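Quick check before the chapter quiz. The format below is the same one you will see on the exam, so make sure you can read both the input and the output lines.
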Amino acid sequence: MPDATDAQLAAQYEALPYPARDPRDEARRLVVGSPSNLAEVDHWVFGARRPAGLPMRALVAGGGTGDGAIMLAQQMAWAGRPGEVVWLDRSGAARRVAEARAAVRGLANLRFVEGSILDLPPGLGVFDYVDCCGVLHHLPDPAAGLRALAGVLAPGGGMGIMVYAPHGRTGVYMLQEALRLIAPVEEAPAARVEVARRVMRHLPETAWLRKNPWITDHLPLPQGGGDPGLYDLLLNPRDVAFTVPQLAALVEGAGLRLSTLVEPVRYDPDHLLPDPRLRARMAGMGMVERAALAEALAGNMGIHIAYLARAGDAVARADWEDPSAVPVLRGGDGAGWAKAARGGSLAITFDGLRVVLPVPPLAPAILSRVDGRASLAEIARAVEAGGAPAAQVARDMAALWRAMEPTNRVTLAAPAG
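Here is the expected output.
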């Protein structure tokens, strides 16, 4: 149930809508990320099996100033995908920013509803996809919030969530404690921000936040999040971080299951501990235990992004053996990825952590033909036409997708129809 801290949170987001966004910027760029990138939803939620022509209803719960809702609605509009995205938040100030951004883009598939996750407005209906990014960790009862959202999830649907993670936020909670002492939560947001800015100007070199390169929200615009980012990071009256096991328990308690953690490769400790004796010790661990080990070892995860499904629903996994499936590269084009794969390996960096993946000899030839339109069968035929034996093409394609899918840099598109 709402409490005094919840009232302080409501006042915060009215005074400082988060994240800081200028609707005029919509003319030059689309803010993209995870969760709820349409390519990710198609792949990780629906296993690249839900037809693109099937209307999709999506709820962005705790939509703030609009990043997730506008990203998904715009991507659907660009792709000619039917459906509706519903923005839900209780902040009128955030709604005004999000509506102005949507108006600049002329989005007709985005609807705005004010309300609380813990008291969902009547008549919303059910949704094929639900986004809850950066919200659960501020609720008085995160479990109740997730259960409420699971209750409006259509059969076969899925969710994308983001929650804070403790290890990558080293330094944050120390400063939160300091600022609660010098800028009590009872003071107005504007006064607390002014005090926090002064503290940051004199922050000792020994402060752990100074040593944490992955946390930037407290920095001034455009490097960071400006005053809204500073307040949300260091002055937020309620901020709960989840380790992987705690997140898994939260998800299970809501009648859901983890479909994947993003990016999956980051949660694989084999990439961190190549020693054969150590890998032998890890071999018997379950998915959550292995992910918890990777989280504790890496130390750079400030958030966890996860896609969820109903616990009782069939597992939807993308089928890389479907010859009609169309692969889509992210973070570059086929030529760029092909160049990066020369030499038998791909190096990808995740928040300072460099992961080197072995790839098969035909990886450059395969990747150079991935354009978001060619099917797996068409790519295979093109590589074979270049002189590669069919058996090697099949073997190398399978090995390449096994290596790259966990990086979230290649996904399968939704089928047409």
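If your answer matched, good. The first strand starts at residue 56 and ends at 61.
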